[in-house]
Amino acid sequence: MNRTYIIIAVIVVAFIGLIVYTKSASPQVESGGSSNYYGKLDSKVELTEFVDFQCEACYAFYPTVKEVKEKYKDRVKFRVRYFPISSGHQFARMGAANAEAAAKQGKFWEMHDKIFEGQKTWEQSQDPQEYFDQYAKEIGLNIEKLKKDIKDPMTSATINADLDEVKRLGGDGTPTFALNGKKIENPDNSVEAFTKVLDEAL
Q: Measured between alpha carbons, how far is 36 from 161 in angstroms, rounded to an integer?
């Protein structure tokens, strides 16, 4: 009889353990990708940019895209997602993690701008995190929360979800742009080129 009770107890404990494990593990692997939007959120036109914060081309596009965002913020929904190409840019994923952690405090765009504007400085450093921490202080982030969110498995899952999506779109270089979910082939780095694309879509 005692043996039967022991077996039942073991089964119950194992079942409870499985439930606890499932609840704790699920949030770490489920992510629909980043949600960094700007402009008219209910617009029928959405322009998405997949960025690598250490990419020279992304750095070159940065002022153009920023001007376009301001020009169309009342008519177009803009979105930035992550496309860190770690094989060529050793600090790209670190930059993405810091931007996503800043997003959790409602300061994605402020951190996004700081990271791009400081790219030529922090990419030469042995420890770019020092610069990212400084940017975080300048834009008023809670540093302890930032550090915790950088290490949060959900942050990594979000970046991975963006990587999966840009791969699905056929993105093979940075920056990759998509209009309403469809990749824009060979975009020109000019306000005029984006104006033409957006005006036609509108």
A: 14
